[in-house]
Inverse folding.
């Protein structure tokens, strides 16, 4: 077993879209001095950390064209080059305190991110036009942690499952155009 320094306050280890790199998201202190540390999964050795603003979490778009740095304290999603981490675009999520975990629709056209703080909820992101489509509040004192989008077997429509760690609840939600007859 080995160990090495990766930055201040490492939060998540995420494989790149092409599985050639592991990335450690080090969100620093209060969103400052953050970095992403690349690790070669074949050797287990880190490369030079890349300074990045507030990288609490990291995702890759389903098509592999962008990395998404979840800048939790900034209420922002930063789309970046998946190899160099050069900034492509920032998307503000002003009504999503603690933007956090996410999952993508099966066709990659949208993603749902959790809003962990200040009552909790979800934010739906249009991945084609890279814009906020809307917000959903889950409960008055919710604290959503993780989310998965599943496909219902009867009608093929998406159902979202979201964990609220504060209340010990799993929410099941359908979109506005979904019916309730399954």
């Amino acid at each position: 077993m080995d160990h090495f320094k990766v930055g201040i306050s490492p939060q998540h280890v995420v494989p790149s879209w092409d599985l050639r790199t592991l990335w450690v998201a080090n969100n620093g202190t209060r969103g400052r001095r953050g970095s992403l540390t690349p690790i070669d999964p074949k050797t287990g050795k880190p490369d030079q950390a890349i300074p990045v603003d507030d990288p609490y979490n990291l995702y890759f778009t389903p098509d592999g064209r962008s990395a998404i740095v979840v800048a939790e304290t900034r209420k922002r999603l930063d789309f970046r080059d998946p190899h160099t981490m050069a900034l492509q675009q920032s998307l503000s999520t002003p009504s999503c305190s603690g933007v956090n975990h996410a999952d993508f629709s099966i066709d990659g056209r949208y993603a749902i991110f959790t809003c962990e703080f200040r009552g909790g909820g979800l934010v739906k992101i249009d991945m084609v036009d890279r814009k906020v489509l809307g917000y959903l509040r889950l409960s008055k004192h919710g604290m959503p942690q993780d989310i998965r989008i599943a496909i219902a077997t009867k009608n093929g429509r998406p159902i979202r499952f979201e964990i609220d760690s504060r209340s010990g609840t799993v929410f099941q939600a359908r979109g506005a155009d979904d019916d309730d007859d399954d």
Notes: The first strand starts at residue 10 and ends at 15.
